[in-house]
């Protein structure tokens, strides 16, 4: 009998991956956690039935959420990752020797436990000595922080369930306060493609532009996310993601990447007209 994982992307669209076997299934205090093996995408993680990452395409998301801000901001030392319990963002961050401290704030300890056991491709650097893991709600964690982080990466689930608070005005305002003067926040900014997703994306975008003086959106192609067209938000106090991009420093680092490069960095901020219109409407 064939086994398929199917995610409902809209009332009229589903996305399916043929599954070889189910590796893990469990219910945590916050969500249902499943891991499957597939031939096309390798092992993949879902939370409450929503795709989080696959071994085959996770590099796109994790490289774009980390290398874009890391090559704009100078001398990043303290980083806060909110969500990101799979460890993919941390794996990319620890490649930068300038970083002294990474606080990873994940609400669900079970996600980290399961990813360490079954997803070593992403979780491989969670034991790096610079990483401190906090099992907490990111919304509450940032409330008490002031002028502490050079970079905040919001690697959250979607704007419902445990992730809902990470798309609020209160949260973005507290992230602004938690950042140093050279600081920036990058978040997964959802998809612009299907109308229901676009409305949620616009709502969050409006809150970010109301909270930060500099705010730009960039994009990547992520095959296993709804529509494949995914956005990221870059919001900062002083640094502009293109004007302050240091391509020379990036090349000198000699980091091997599969998606990110200097041309992609600049090109990712060139948005299709329909996305520009959605962002201007807010
Ligand atoms: N790349 C993924 C995506 O966009 O689908 C996100 C991956 S990561 C697994 C998302 C993590 O955010 C989950 O492990 C979830 O438990 C965590 N999370 C959700 N809400 C949170 C909150 N309020 N505070 C901290 N972590 C949260």
Automatic annotation (TrEMBL):
Residues 2-237 form the PABS domain. Spermidine binds at residues 62, 86, 155-158. The active site is at 155 (proton acceptor). Coiled coil: none annotated. One of its GO terms (molecular function) is spermidine synthase activity. Signal peptide: none annotated. This is Polyamine aminopropyltransferase. It comes from Sporolactobacillus kofuensis. It is an enzyme of class 2 (transferase). Homodimer or homotetramer. Pathway: Amine and polyamine biosynthesis; spermidine biosynthesis; spermidine from putrescine: step 1/1. It catalyses: S-adenosyl 3-(methylsulfanyl)propylamine + putrescine = S-methyl-5'-thioadenosine + spermidine + H(+). The lineage of its organism: Bacteria, Bacillati, Bacillota, Bacilli, Bacillales. It holds the Pfam family Spermine_synt_N. PROSITE patterns: PABS_1, PABS_2.
